[in-house]
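Job type: complex structure
Entries:
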Amino acid sequence: MTIAINPFIAAIPTNPLRALFPYGARPGMLNLASGHPSKDAYDLEGLAEAASRASRDFSAWTYGSSAGDPALIGALAETVTTLPPGKRLLVTSGAQQGIDLAIRTFAEPGSKVMVPEPVYPAVLSTCAAIGVVPVGYQIAAGDNELAEFETVLQTAGDVRAIYALPTFGNPTGETLTREQRLRLLGLCARHGVPVIEDAPYSDLWFRAPPPPSLLDLAPQVDGATVIHLGSLSKIMSPGLRIGWLIAPESVAAAMQEARQASDLQPNALAQRVAWHYLQLGRLIDHVARVRGLYAERHDALVAVLTRAGFTVPVVDGGMFIFPVLPADKGNSDLFERAVVQDVLFAPGPAFRAQPDSGLFADRMRLCFAGLAKADIVVAAERLAAAVHA
Amino acid sequence: MTIAINPFIAAIPTNPLRALFPYGARPGMLNLASGHPSKDAYDLEGLAEAASRASRDFSAWTYGSSAGDPALIGALAETVTTLPPGKRLLVTSGAQQGIDLAIRTFAEPGSKVMVPEPVYPAVLSTCAAIGVVPVGYQIAAGDNELAEFETVLQTAGDVRAIYALPTFGNPTGETLTREQRLRLLGLCARHGVPVIEDAPYSDLWFRAPPPPSLLDLAPQVDGATVIHLGSLSKIMSPGLRIGWLIAPESVAAAMQEARQASDLQPNALAQRVAWHYLQLGRLIDHVARVRGLYAERHDALVAVLTRAGFTVPVVDGGMFIFPVLPADKGNSDLFERAVVQDVLFAPGPAFRAQPDSGLFADRMRLCFAGLAKADIVVAAERLAAAVHA
């Protein structure tokens, strides 16, 4: 018997980053492709202590609220994020579940969601799985920076939400200025379209904190609606799968029902571990240490690439750069040549919002969070060798 | 600005069981409504030991496979479930995520899924959230037991899957016989419709194990397709949110993509805890102890109810009974009268697949897993008093 698969599900594109996992597992491979922090960027001692404390709480082992553990919600709102009045925070299974819930809450099958070009590819998978059409937008530098964005918003038709990653973007690492944020919010408000702000990297700044989040700026823009997504994955542990969404009360109520219908509630044990970790008071020092590690690795990576002829757009934090290959070096077999040199990168085309656009053939996403400084220099030199081979 | 909510999401019915949570939290309330095991039905010492071991594994804290931790998959297939050749096991966030993934994989918006009447209400929420229409079926006792099922299957139109909970059902506690299972599989195979077998309670038998699962019987029925859903929630800990689905390879591949698009991967920490718990070798004794506890509580509850004039259909395991009120005692304010008596039950109508059917007004679901034997007797007596007040 051949069983028919829902065409939405059958059409989910394979996540090109997860498809790189097997390469990353090869012995000797230096992995610049995956957005995975290195082992020394975890506070394993603090996490183990938090797990030990959590394991003695009965609430770690039993059912709880679909919205999340009230104690954790309180601790997140106090120490990790802002929670403006009139908004509700729901704990999610990583920011990815927040993306899924937000898109599903606003966009029914056949409607459209605007996504950055280039984009974190899991967003495209989420759209595909629910039959929503992603439409790419670019925000240029300069005076007319939001002109294309506005044109797409006006002409795409049936746009239900804007997905944005305005701080240390994935893959570009780029950050919208305060002025760009306010203009983006203004345009979306004027068109009555909510903004889904994905913000997993905001705490990973190098020298100075980034501009305020869209969530924090929204009160300055009449009629702006922001769904803000945060995560402990990049500052505490991705294995915990603890993220959150912040939404206006009425929208959050719908999202909580959707969440309950999809997997009932957040993980009780992981929530207790996160809460105990926050109580330990180690997070601020830990994140400061990680910032220093990443800044140093970033600088080492950029130095080698620049000497090798790459053009590296400036980033001020996060985990990624999205450099341009040396002129005339964009080459379809570069990935294989790099693998032979035992170095892995994520090809630029993996991040196309429109798969047939031909964009980003001369770019690659490199993660500077996953390798120690000495290794990252070796990896960059291998990459340079592969490019110039 | 009023933001439009996707009509599917806006139409999710509130889960009537979760709506009872606030009543259950009142001091002095004896809760027969919620399907929550009592604290003494957990192996808290073993779980704490497993958590302590898991916290020292780096893999507990970092990213992992969307399909689940291979070590846990192996341990589940060895000790907790069967994994027939040609099938793949994916770890899910509880069986609820398995229900969501299975329904979404087979049914696109506007199509139909058949569900038992009465049904576990979260299944209806899942259908609503994705715009799928649930159609109720009943399986009667006696010779012609599957006649109505077949009629619905033939006449409902566009049925993409059958949801079934054949072992110690929720809410009824009832179990399909081996013959009923084979006939059900035969009918579904003949109509080319897959069966989603939800099996969270199968290990909680009182005197003898239940008939083989639909998954295990499927090879005897040409063309039968079964998606089997299991869970550690009822035998280890619901807070871990560890379930699994077993599906034919090709279907499992689509489900894994859908899962990745929805929340990336299972909780890494909870998977390591589950794996270490299984390594401790305590599960068999623990489940045997829980079986004994529940059987004793069940017998005590049924004895009081029977004396009070309830008709209690026989169950052989699980966590629930679905008794019929004494004649002429079905009453719309019984719930409030019971609350005044400090006892909570789940009203029969909460389990209607067709909300306007008028069914089950004279029934209630009672959970015998959540209260110690002495308390369950008091709770049953309070219930009897409320009924006869």
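Summary: The mean pLDDT of chain B is 95. DSSP finds 14 helices and twelve strands in chain B.
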